């Protein structure tokens, strides 16, 4: 259930009556949750005591009625409390809230329920330490007649090229207009206050019949009016919603819709696409308009692994590519964002069945345009220096799959002279996760420089490395056993372990030892550890061989 909120003249008038209208007294402290039996029917006096006390009252509400609620502190001696007023449902979801109404520290709001039933009105103090008396009151009235419904049952319609004039009759009113939308069109929609006493701050949304937001805007082109562009993904009815910002404005408005044909796109965003890509092929394409997505048909073989990359390219490249893989029905089976260099995408996939799939090229925001390069390659991530997968030494996170059993994945890591990194390989916590990760680091010449098993938490791997020369290094992700397979996660943190609280690495009191290094004379490594009061601990610092360097003297 969702409610609408505003304090206004009626709520202020209700507040003004608090000093004169009779009120029933609260005989005992009310619970601060839905277990309360106290019922709010008019005015009631209560008390916040002790500090942090909250009082809940049951309120029976009906659709088509507007409820004016007000909460005022009462100061018998000294200063009254600064009260806050809320409305909740039985699950504790806040439906409406106000603090400081009408230039005072008292609170007031208007609430229009979307369902008939019980809600809960909460009285509390702004300060957790404050205590004192209050008066809480409610009145109800029928909402004014509405010229447009507020859900998918509305009879109001909007037509392209014709202005629809409407009115937000009361605080919290929303008007829905049905629009018959067609693919291949871009709809330009504006909502502006109109006439004397026009809607002060219009908010515009496009929704489906279930209320899911498809597009929205508030305050366009430097004004308080709203405007947006909407491109439907399918033919059918959508609903344009007009309302006031914060449900706090009333007045007239003008709703306008215009439409224009989208540029011709030969690569559709459905299973009817004319786009094709084969393994070993590279394609340059363009997202031509906001919400554009290009689907390419590809045939994959059961049990075979494939790699798909989507990079920003061209004179006007897309900002943040996003790649998806879909099955023959168009259902998503895999997705990647930022798995490649920078914001580019890199997706590894092993086909579960032979047949037609679709590779989707799109943007992370869903509304970006620009050029891209899409490539499809056979085989999984190479296990040698020919790899096309890479990690950023400034910080990176990547998920991959070792498949088939015994597979190894290599990632290129380009380091400057003396640049330090920390590399972790973890299980993913999913049913298809690898059981015992294992990390190996190779130099530019392919010689092994470091390896780790169980250096992280549990069976996870962790190693710290500082380059002795600039060049391409290689991180090998593998399993501890020769027949290991499954999903894994790699993460890279730039720099060595920090020398202060902000740069400290985490250390578990009951975890495995951490192997690290002192990179230079005067280097200091800080580790953060959570300890339990009264429990004794022992800390050990041992020298260790590693990475061709001499052990430290402890």
What topology does this entry show?
Blueprint: E1 5-6, H1 9-16, E2 24-25, E3 43-48, E4 54-61, E5 65-74, E6 83-88, E7 94-99, E8 107-111, E9 117-125, E10 132-142, E11 164-168, E12 174-181, E13 185-193, E14 202-207, E15 213-218, E16 226-230, E17 236-244, E18 251-261, E19 275-276, E20 282-287, E21 294-300, E22 305-312, E23 321-326, E24 332-337, E25 345-350, E26 355-363, E27 370-378, E28 390-391, E29 395-402, E30 409-415, E31 420-427, E32 437-442, E33 448-452, E34 461-466, E35 471-479, E36 486-494, E37 505-506, E38 527-528
Parallel strand pairs: 2-3, 19-21, 28-30, 37-38
Antiparallel strand pairs: 1-8, 3-10, 4-9, 5-8, 5-10, 6-7, 6-9, 11-18, 12-17, 13-16, 13-18, 14-15, 14-17, 20-27, 21-26, 22-25, 22-27, 23-24, 23-26, 29-36, 30-35, 31-34, 31-36, 32-33, 32-35
Short descriptors:
single chain; 554 residues; mainly beta; Jelly Rolls; 4 domains; six-stranded mixed sheet; five-stranded mixed sheet; 1% helix; 45% strand; disordered N terminus
């Amino acid at each position: 259930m969702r409610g609408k909120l505003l304090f206004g003249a009626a709520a202020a008038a209700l507040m003004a009556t608090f000093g004169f209208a009779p009120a029933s007294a609260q005989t005992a402290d009310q619970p601060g949750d839905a277990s309360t039996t106290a019922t709010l029917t008019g005015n009631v006096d209560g008390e916040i005591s002790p500090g942090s006390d909250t009082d809940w009252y049951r309120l029976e509400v009906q659709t088509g009625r507007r409820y004016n609620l007000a909460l005022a502190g009462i100061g018998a001696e000294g200063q009254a409390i600064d009260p806050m007023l809320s409305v909740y449902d039985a699950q504790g979801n806040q439906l409406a809230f106000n603090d400081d109404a009408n230039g005072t520290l008292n609170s007031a709001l208007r609430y229009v329920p979307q369902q008939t039933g019980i809600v809960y009105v909460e009285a509390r103090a702004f300060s957790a330490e404050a205590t004192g008396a209050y008066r809480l009151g409610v009145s109800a009235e029928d909402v004014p007649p509405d010229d447009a419904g507020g859900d998918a049952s509305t009879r109001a319609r909007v037509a392209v090229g014709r202005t629809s004039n409407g009115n937000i009759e009361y605080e919290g009113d929303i008007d829905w207009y049905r629009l018959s939308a067609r693919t291949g069109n871009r709809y330009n929609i504006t909502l502006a206050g109109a006439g004397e006493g026009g809607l002060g701050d219009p908010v515009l949304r496009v929704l489906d019949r279930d209320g899911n937001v498809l597009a929205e805007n508030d305050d366009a082109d430097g004004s308080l009016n709203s405007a947006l562009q909407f491109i439907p993904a399918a033919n059918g009815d959508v609903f344009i919603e007009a309302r006031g910002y914060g449900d706090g404005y009333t007045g007239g408005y003008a709703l306008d819709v215009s439409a224009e044909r989208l540029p011709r796109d030969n690569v559709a965003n459905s299973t009817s696409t004319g786009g094709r890509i084969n393994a070993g092929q590279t394609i340059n394409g363009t997202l031509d308009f906001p919400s554009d997505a290009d689907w390419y048909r590809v045939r994959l073989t059961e049990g075979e692994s494939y790699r798909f990359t989507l990079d920003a390219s061209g004179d006007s490249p897309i900002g943040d590519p996003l790649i998806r893989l879909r099955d023959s029905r168009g259902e998503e089976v895999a997705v990647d964002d930022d798995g490649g260099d920078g914001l580019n995408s890199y997706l590894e996939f092993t086909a579960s069945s032979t047949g037609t799939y679709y590779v989707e090229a799109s943007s992370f925001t869903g509304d970006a345009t620009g050029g891209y390069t899409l490539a499809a390659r056979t085989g999984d991530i190479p296990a040698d220096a020919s790899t096309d997968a890479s990690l950023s030494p400034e910080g990176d996170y990547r998920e991959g799959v070792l498949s088939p059993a015994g597979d190894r994945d290599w990632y290129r890591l380009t380091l400057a002279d003396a640049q330090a990194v920390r590399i972790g390989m973890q299980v993913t916590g999913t049913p298809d996760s690898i059981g015992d990760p294992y990390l190996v680091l190779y130099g530019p010449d392919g010689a092994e420089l470091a390896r780790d098993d169980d250096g992280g938490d549990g069976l996870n791997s962790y190693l710290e490395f500082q380059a002795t020369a600039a060049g391409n290094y290689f991180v090998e992700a593998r399993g501890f056993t020769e027949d290991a397979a499954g999903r894994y996660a790699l993460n890279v943190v730039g720099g060595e372990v920090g020398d202060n609280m902000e740069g400290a690495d985490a250390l578990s009191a009951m975890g495995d030892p951490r192997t690290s290094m002192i990179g230079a004379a005067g280097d200091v490594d800080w580790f953060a550890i959570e300890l339990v009061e009264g429990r004794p601990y022992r800390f050990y610092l041992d020298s260790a061989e590693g990475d061709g360097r001499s052990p430290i003297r402890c």
